[in-house]
């Protein structure tokens, strides 16, 4: 592929494993890509994606928002991009600032800022009259004791982390006191009334404030107290039109409340009933757990390309509004059943299953493991595409049953 200076270019702020769909789409579209990433990640990507023509290393702590803006500005100064696309949570603010300064499409500085802080979200959703849990924002957990103890069970969560990190359900006064002992100096936290009901997310493509496409994803989690996600089923709206309609309406309310311009809205919620939904949180970046990939598989179109086209100011190519999902697609995550040292992880049966699009181990033998308390504790994943929901559920159960996992007790400290 020729990469002339007349081609359009895009700066990608962050490019983890689940961002590779953007790079494949960019290559097909003939775009020139500049990456802001770690040197190791750039070295892994550049030989595989000739569309990557420039690079600026991220300095400082890569998990911190403030580490990404200086290299993004430097790279944009060289590349003069036609579009800027952010990947994960720490990239959102730097991307929004750069989009604002260059005058290119994006969710907007206000939407990006609110999305990065769950306490700000609660304030904006309350102002808009959107359904959400009762909550308290507190600097010290002990300051919320009176409110929380009157409302048990409650959920404690950080205001700006992701992947279930730091999310914990508190059921009893004793458990609350233990949490205060462990987390009182942690910093700003949200304490929320626990909402009973299954978990879902809705993924929306938004252009100039208009919702162009939505997908409903059903989730399975570890349950209390940490609610780590272990399975996602894209295209669930075809099986539950009442829930799908309510979720679409809720999503449009959130997009309006955020004043979201152009990009992705990833809205997580619980459903007390199919038409009684409660917002958990919203993000304006690529959802984790391969969700965009399974949305693409379920609806039979390239969501990554659609996002790039919107970032370039174009109308994306979308499936017909009245067409349902083409198939059922899901992402499965394998958790440990006990704490110890992972001594063996054999996924050879997974490779033999025709409905498995791809899979990989996430943790290697020799690693200390535990029943999942956040997303980083999960052992392996698989992306699945099946003719229907029943086949998807059966395949997921087969994979759980055939994964060979050996865990031995950890040596005493």
Automatic annotation (TrEMBL):
Keywords, comma-separated and alphabetical: ATP-binding, Ligase, Nucleotide-binding
PROSITE patterns: ATP_GRASP (PS50975)
Pfam families: ATP-grasp_4, LAL_C2
Domain ATP-grasp: 122-312
SUPFAM superfamilies with a match to the protein in the record: Glutathione synthetase ATP-binding domain-like
GO molecular function (one): ligase activity
Name this polypeptide is given: ATP-grasp domain-containing protein
